[in-house]
Amino acid sequence: MANLQSELLNDVLAAFETAPDVRLRQLLRSLLIHLHGFVAEAHLSHDEWQKGIAFLTAVGRACTPDRQEFMLLSDVLGISSAVDVAKDSHPQATPGTVLGPYYVPNSPRRQPGASLIDTDDGGQRLHVTGTVCSIDGVPIANAAVDIWSCASNGLYPAQDPAQSPTNMRGLMGTDASGRFDFVVLRPTNYSIPMDGPVGELLRATGRSPMRAAHVHLIVSAAGYQGVTTHLFDSQCRYLSSDSVFSTRKPLIRQFLQSANGELTACFEVKLAPQPAVASAAAAAAAAAAAARS
Ligand SMILES: [Fe+2]
Fold this sequence. Notes:
By secondary structure, the chain is of the alpha+beta class. The chain contains seven helices and eleven strands.
């Protein structure tokens, strides 16, 4: 039987060897080896295979322009976080976390220090001050910081018609010292959507649907590798059981009480240089060293 499985896999791999795109060929080869290995190792039955196909079909049918159930599935399986870990640009750079299903492009432009609260639900205000710098600590001016966060009820505007579509969303640039700051409502833990097939999967496996409280940020700057990340609340009780496995220690911050009643948090984002920039800098340093010798 093992020989038959091996022959079958070899035939399938050979069928894709003609793909002209080298990277596509690599990805398919690795994927097929793992998928065939899974079928063989698990002794997958026809009934189980058909249930798997039905589940994936249901995941696809649950997708809408405002809901990405496949992304949610990737998140709860830890695959999104595995991709984040695999592509972390540098050990000193701010680690990435999941994009999540609620990112909406084209956030409104906000001035430094602006409140992103377009629908005030009475929650506690959180003033985030931050800097964007290189892994060597050099401030990066004109970096773009794209922010989105949930309201105090744990919902994003796409889930909650009572909120302005721009609520808790904003895009701003860093100043000459790499600084940015904004005000949001204190993020709260929330359940991922449980009314679709991914919810069924979590119920069937007895897993918690709760996400640890966080603010989302995408930070990008010319010449640097951008990062999609979170700022986590150190007081959240779901930090160690985040349903999408995105909690990472360097992203956890203590929210401090200020005299004006707001909470405050500091968040430094460190970006690694683009590989081409890094190699050019290394070449320049090597040339300079050679000239000195
Ligand atoms: Fe979120």
